[in-house]
Amino acid sequence: MSTAQLPPGFEALEPFVEAWSIKGANNRLQRRLSSTEAERVAFFDAGRGLLGPALAYLDRKPLQELDEPEERLMRLMLSFAHVALAVEVQGDDEPKHARDARYLTITRAPADQSP
Amino acid sequence: MNVQASQYSPSLNEDVAGIGTGPVPAGPYYRDDYFELERAAIFQRCWLQIGHVCELPEPGSFIVRPVEVAKTSILITRDRDGKIHAFHNVCTHRGTQLVAEESGSRPLFTCRYHAWTFGSDGKLRSAPDFERFYVEKSQCDLHSVAVDVCAGLIFINLDPSPEQGLREFLGPLAEQLETLPVARATVFTEYVYAIEANWKLTYDNFQENYHLRFIHPRSGAAAGGPENPFGYPLQYGFHGPHRTQRIWTNPNPKIVPTQGFAFGKAAAIAAADGFGAAPHNRDYFALFPNFFILGTPTQHFSHCVMPLSATRSRGVIRIYWIGQDDSATKRFAREYVMGTIFDVHSEDRAVIEAGQRGLSSGALEYIHFQSQEVLCRHLMYCVDQWVQSYRAARTAAESA
Question: How many structural domains compose chain B?
């Protein structure tokens, strides 16, 4: 079966690709703000041990040369940054935090401008 | 661990501001008549931060910025020789707003109304059937606005003949700003917000740490600690209308795992860029009237609060970076660092608006600033100095 969407070694993150492999910093932020606690915790728990290995894997190539599975993994890790802040820092306060955060918009990020 | 280093010994010097300690009138934070004075006395006469040179990477690059407080739009260009210009974004024929895009690159700007065409140096190049006008072409160039650059930051001054040049206005801070990463920045992250609050009230929120433990109990935890629970800074500085503070950092903050990982990477990137132990790593530079930048290389952000009316503003936060993302780790570290700053700012907006609703009710004649709120007091003091000197000059001119 070859339905893998991510590079080998990151199978544990496959269930999160659809929801969290997102293009655009503001879209990743909005996904965080509209997510449920269960979604965030599930993604965080699956990703926490794979962040270091994923970045080390992706660092082997220039960003412009990432293939599609690698690009998906990159975007997944960028979403992980947002989710980690929600889970590890905000914790129980995230719903209240998210209510106020919706009034801010990310208008530019280097990740959105270069491949 | 590290108990020695965690000793907090303040050397605060708010007295050197020489601006007193009394109650401060509340009216300037909501009254329309005071805002009209600020508009004329400050925003039409003062150097205003408007952009960064990395937005104009090559000849022909341009940006357009609204300056609502001056009811204008400014076109900033880099001409064929690399020189930066600023103009009112207004066709000199019949006043049509010339450029509709926010940014781009092109050598000529053609007005869509009657095709008057200007160069990136502002000169009128061509105008159809021009011989039937009653004016010389040389009198029809775009109206220029004073512009200058410090530390890569672009400033404009809407006064047709500014009283001071930018360097003179910034004084000793100009040289210090030049040592910050922003002076070498090539890209930035930006986020924006709209707020129902006076520009000073909004800006003041970011000039004091007194509120951190209440509004940012989680996202701002590193700014306080048992030995300095209110997060007093180590030092204040007052430089004409500008002010600085050296921020205290809890040497033993509670760091969650991803934070430790991401900031470890961010610190390594800063060190590789030559900002491992820079002299202004913990300095906050507040430039009159509405701009500040934090020197910290790992969270190197600026914040500009643009007034829209007496009780409405918009905020623009930028995090400046040197070089494009060139690795997955750098890209991740930047996204995470942005999130940490974003989270703090997103928690401030609602309470600032609540402050505005209270002040706008007119219930208070005065507000009170504490020792640590001396920077807020200094802003109001300087604003009022500019307003009063403008009023005095206007009165003198009228009675002359």
Answer: 2
